[in-house]
């Protein structure tokens, strides 16, 4: 049905390689974006409250605002 000789197949493969080589920077960029998305999503899943670095002390929780609502009802 189709007559494919070796020369046209080789030319098709060469053209496909040219297209893939032209797309390599875009594919690399999209892969890095996807990798960063997976890493950030994984960090959020492991530590949803955030990660405290040793150089930065955690912010003190203000329990007054939370206790004021419950202490008024007695």
Keywords, separated by commas or semicolons:
2 helices, about 70 residues, mainly alpha
List the helices and strands and how they pair.
Blueprint: H1 6-46, H2 63-71
A few lines on this structure:
The chain is mainly α. It has helices at residues 6-46, 63-71.
Explain this structure.
68% of the residues lie in helices and 0% in strands. With 74 residues, the chain is mainly alpha-helical. The chain has one domain (6-71). The model has no long low-confidence stretch (mean pLDDT 75).
Helix content: 55-70%
Largest sheet: none
Number of domains: 1
Low-confidence stretches: none
Q: What distance separates the N and C termini?
A: 89 Å
Whole-number average pLDDT?
A: 75
**Secondary-structure element pattern, one letter each:** HH
Helix count from the secondary structure assignment: 2
Q: How many distinct beta strands?
A: 0
Strand content: under 5%
- Which class do the helix and strand fractions yield? mainly alpha
Can you tell me the overall shape? rod-shaped
Radius of gyration: 29 Å
């Amino acid at each position: 049905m189709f007559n494919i000789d070796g020369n046209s197949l080789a030319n098709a493969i060469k053209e496909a390689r040219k297209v893939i080589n032209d797309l390599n920077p875009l594919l690399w960029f999209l892969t890095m974006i996807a990798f960063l998305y997976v890493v950030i999503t994984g960090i959020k899943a492991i530590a949803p409250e955030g990660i405290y670095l040793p150089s930065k002390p955690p912010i003190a929780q203000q329990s007054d605002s939370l206790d004021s609502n419950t202490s008024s009802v007695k």
